[in-house]
Amino acid sequence: MIISNINSRKIENQVEVSALIDGYRLWYRFPANFSASLSVEPFLVASFFVASRSGQPVEVKDSKTASPRLLANFKRLQCIFGTWKRDLRPFTVNVQAAELHADNAMVCSFFSGGVDSLYTLINNESEITHLVYINGFDFHVSPEEFAINVQRLRDLSAPFEKEIIPVETNFFDFDKLYGVGRHWSHGASLASVALLLQPAKCIVPTTFTYRDLRPWGTHPLTDNLWSTEVTEILHDTADRERPEKIRKIAERSQAVLDSLVVCWTYPDKNCGQCIKCIRTMIILKILGIETNSFPGSISPEYVSRLSPSEHYRAYFEDLLRFAREQGDESMVKALQKSLSVSMTKKIVKLFDDRYLNGSIRSGFRYLQKKASKA
Length: 374
Known about the structure:
Layout: E1 2-11, E2 14-21, E3 24-31, H1 41-46, H2 48-54, E4 58-60, E5 65-66, H3 68-84, E6 93-94, E7 96-97, E8 107-110, H4 115-123, E9 130-135, H5 143-157, E10 163-169, H6 171-177, H7 182-197, E11 201-204, E12 232-235, H8 242-252, H9 254-258, H10 275-287, H11 300-304, H12 313-326, H13 329-355, H14 359-373
Parallel strand pairs: 1-4, 4-6, 5-7, 8-9, 8-11, 9-10, 11-12
Antiparallel strand pairs: 1-2, 2-3, 3-10
């Protein structure tokens, strides 16, 4: 794998920094009033998982040098991710090492207006100076939608007196082209943006608590290993459950809570039907907190009819534990029924796969098709 042609150009009121990675042009764009590094580190980090899939050496052209701290940590990162994902292969980086030097007092965090990023902002309010919002990291929206989202986040961050840095990139397409998958690569994607901006510190919002940690792209074991001599990347504290984060957000102000967006379907509003919306609405219901950030509220009757897939059972088990702790008996019963239905479906699926070669599901799909045509 060859990394070459690292350069920048101005596009209207933006600066674009790009590089060729095996001929693919990976780019990042951000406001022209922010300076960006033309060093190789952001592109080394961005290509980490692509190189790990092939195991081929990475060669850096154009007489570029790289952070010795990052290069040393690449070996540890390969060890950790290679233990988690056994098909990843070790690779070498052919580049001269040289320490980076920069003077930037910025402390940033990544910000989408969701539970995790809002909690990180509130938890580190006195330290954070800038908030980074990325288009092309885990979703793509049109320039018009992106501008609307940026303004929404500027309005949300105004009471905190923090500046939003909107960043656009084609990393999502790059990642998809090589078939890596954001489950693993999203931490590297975030780190590449941080290393472009070169803040003194970048705080990564947490997804899971220390109790629930699992192999994942952002993790307390790995986030700091993307750091260089000039930018310290830190995983935010992971000692708070999601209900505690939501309670903290609600305590900050009703306006902040009403601006909360957690949705997987829409980037600028909540659909009220995806798993992230439902999970948050259940927590709000148990806490007795009202907000207009969701289209209506959720009832125990509705929850009892849900059937979380195996991937999301852990979320519902956490919600059941929380409902018990809060003494919400109606929600306890609803979540128990939901999990019971989910387990029944799981058992039927296992039986169908093992003994009937999927005949039950095939027959069900056939009946559904006939019913839709009737």
